[in-house]
């Protein structure tokens, strides 16, 4: 109760019965005033009988004991803001099932805007999705194929999940990107739930609810929930293992009896199939740091290392052996040599950055949860000897250091450490000293809130540049952002410990609606959509045309098309053009290869369309002409 003092939890509660709850009332009846609503049992458990009687009993115009002189004193009305705060605290105090349902629904509300409408994003997402589509179509669940080649950058786990999603939804939807995003959405929600369970073991019910909701509003997790990639699934597997480790660290062997060790090793094996050694590295570094801090390894014995390692090997080894037999050393050369070791040694695909880049970027990538991050940093230092804080620091610092010194840097690489940041931020906010916010923090808060409007303005700039004009979705997103700014500001001024995250939810939802929900309108950045439509048009003009593309090879074109296109050079495309009346072929030619194609081709084709814009995969301006030869 001490850390929750302030407007909602007055210090008078610890000293005795508040003046407003004295026996004598205007009605002359002890207890709550006539007509006052009963307070739910969960609130009484959360705050104590006196405080909840006070919160539930006060009504607009309720009159309590008379002041000196006989003039009645009117009590302060309990507003909807007060009741929202109390309801959240009562929810946190309930059994875990209800808070977890709330967290899951809240996370879905944050993640769903734009989930279905956002077109495939080149290049990584579409490569994963197209490889999964081909796996589902071929029935070969060992090899990973992309177009006419292979895709050996990542292990098979994510392709199995996405192929299962295709089978579940139906192959008639195999060209729709949202099908392949379903595993990411489910795992992002699972990550929020696992954050709640981990925090519940570390810092208690209210901080656990707050930490889970902070993860749900986190910008980078919201982005990964909408992408058919590995990172949301990787996060869920890491958190499943960290949950077991947190229980063992805080409560000893009794907390991990039964199936908990199998969850730990199963999660480690699944993580190895999703993104190779990255997940086990994060968990392993946490274990090593805790061994140093605890000065021993005996506390790890309940994890059943012998049987657990056998389970880990049983999960991981069969596919790795099978792909080695099928591909020789090709998989290992690509996955280890080029993808993993290559990213450590040098920045790949123009994604290099110096050490310290993640420490600067976290204020944006963790936004709007980063509003509470200063409290997490303060709490992590001031309570650094507490077991829960030690666990979070052992989780964050070693892995963060590894990611900082790695040459290739992408904003989602440090995401496996974000749940620990959320736990520290939640605990620090709840434990902060009473009193007004400091001036430096108020300036920081103003900057963080202004960021909502800056991010929301980006779609408007695109709209004006490409002539689409602002939409209702953009206006709705800005309105939600303004409501979020007001809500966060007023909640912090009122020292509302839990209600502040609902304001952050409005900020996150506003950005999701204005950005993710609005991007689909910008046809200039989705040329593959228009090109796939031209193939449908060509298929209606002649039967089963040959399908070729010269100079444009984005994988989104493969995913969106009912037939697999061939990405070829000008000479090969010209050789595939049939003689007049001997068949038909559709050829897309990018402007920079058009002169070479005109020289190589023997006859002029019919222009059935032209697409202009730029590709997200290469950020280059594009002009593509569609020729139909028949």
From TrEMBL:
Transmembrane feature ranges: 100-118, 188-221, 233-250, 262-293, 305-323, 357-381, 388-407, 413-431, 443-466, 472-489, 501-520
Membrane topology note: Multi-pass membrane protein
Subcellular location(s) per record: Cell membrane
MF (Gene Ontology): pentosyltransferase activity
GO (cellular component) term, any one: plasma membrane
Keywords, comma-separated and alphabetical: Cell membrane, Glycosyltransferase, Membrane, Transferase, Transmembrane, Transmembrane helix
Pfam families xref list: PMT_2
Domain (Glycosyltransferase RgtA/B/C/D-like): residue spans on this chain: 153-320
InterPro entries: LipidA_mod_glycosyltrf_83 (IPR050297), RgtA/B/C-like (IPR038731)
One GO-annotated biological process of the protein: lipopolysaccharide biosynthetic process
Major place of residence: membrane
Presence of the UniProt keyword Secreted in the record: no
Region described as Disordered: spans on this chain: 14-36
Protein name: Glycosyltransferase family 39 protein
Species the sequence originates in: Antarcticimicrobium luteum
């Amino acid at each position: 109760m001490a850390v929750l003092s302030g407007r909602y939890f007055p210090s008078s509660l610890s000293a005795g019965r508040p003046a407003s709850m004295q026996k004598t009332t205007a009605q002359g009846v002890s207890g709550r005033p006539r007509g006052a609503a009963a307070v739910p049992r969960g609130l009484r458990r959360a705050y104590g009988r006196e405080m909840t009687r006070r919160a539930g009993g006060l009504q607009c115009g309720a009159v309590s004991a008379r002041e000196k002189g006989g003039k009645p004193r009117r009590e302060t009305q309990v507003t909807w803001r007060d009741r929202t705060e109390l309801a959240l605290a009562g929810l946190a105090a309930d059994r875990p099932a209800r808070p977890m349902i709330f967290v899951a629904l809240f996370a879905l509300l944050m993640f769903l805007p734009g989930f279905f409408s956002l077109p495939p994003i080149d290049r990584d997402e579409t490569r994963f999705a197209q490889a999964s589509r081909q796996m589902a179509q071929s029935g070969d669940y060992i090899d990973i194929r992309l177009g006419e080649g292979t895709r050996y950058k990542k292990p098979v786990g994510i392709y199995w999940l996405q192929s299962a999603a295709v089978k579940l939804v139906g192959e008639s939807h195999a060209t729709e990107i949202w099908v392949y995003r379903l595993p990411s959405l489910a795992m992002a929600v699972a990550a929020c739930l696992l954050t709640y369970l981990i925090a519940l073991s570390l810092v208690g019910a209210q901080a656990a609810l707050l930490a889970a909701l902070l993860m749900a509003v986190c910008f980078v997790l919201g982005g990964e929930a909408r992408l058919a990639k590995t990172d949301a699934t990787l996060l869920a597997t890491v958190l499943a293992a960290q949950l077991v480790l947190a229980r063992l660290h805080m409560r000893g062997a009794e907390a991990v009896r039964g199936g908990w060790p199998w969850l730990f090793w199963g999660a480690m094996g699944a993580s190895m199939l999703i993104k190779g050694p990255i997940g086990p590295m994060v968990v392993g570094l946490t274990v090593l740091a805790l061994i140093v801090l605890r000065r021993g390894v005996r506390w790890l014995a309940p994890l059943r290392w012998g049987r657990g390692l056998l389970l880990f090997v049983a999960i991981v080894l069969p596919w790795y052996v099978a792909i080695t037999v099928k591909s020789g050393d090709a998989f290992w050369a690509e996955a280890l040599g080029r993808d993993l070791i290559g990213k450590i040694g040098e920045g790949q695909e123009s994604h290099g950055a110096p050490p310290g880049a993640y420490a600067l970027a976290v204020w944006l990538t963790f936004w709007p949860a980063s509003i509470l991050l200063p409290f997490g940093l303060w709490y992590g230092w001031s309570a650094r000897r507490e077991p829960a804080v030690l666990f979070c620091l052992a989780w964050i610092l070693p892995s963060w250091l590894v990611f900082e010194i790695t040459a290739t840097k992408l904003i989602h690489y440090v995401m496996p450490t974000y749940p620990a940041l959320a736990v520290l931020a939640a605990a620090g906010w709840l434990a902060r000293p009473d009193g007004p916010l400091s001036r430096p923090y108020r300036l920081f808060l103003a900057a963080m809130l202004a960021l909502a409007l800056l991010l929301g303005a980006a779609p408007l700039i695109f709209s004006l540049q490409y002539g689409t004009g602002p939409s209702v979705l953009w206006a709705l997103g800005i309105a939600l952002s303004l409501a979020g700014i007001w809500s966060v500001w007023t909640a912090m001024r009122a020292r509302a410990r839990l209600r502040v995250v609902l304001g952050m939810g409005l900020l996150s939802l506003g950005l999701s609606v204005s950005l993710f929900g609005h991007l689909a309108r910008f046809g200039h950045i989705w040329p593959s959509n228009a090109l796939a439509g031209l193939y449908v048009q060509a298929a209606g003009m002649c039967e089963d045309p040959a399908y070729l593309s010269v100079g444009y090879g984005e994988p989104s074109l493969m995913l969106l098309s009912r037939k697999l296109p061939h990405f070829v050079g000008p000479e090969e495309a010209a050789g595939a053009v049939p003689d007049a009346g001997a068949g038909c072929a559709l050829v897309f030619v990018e402007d920079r290869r058009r002169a070479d194609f005109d020289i190589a081709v023997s006859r002029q084709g019919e222009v059935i369309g032209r697409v202009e814009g730029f590709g997200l995969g290469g950020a280059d301006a594009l002009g593509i002409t569609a020729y139909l030869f028949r």
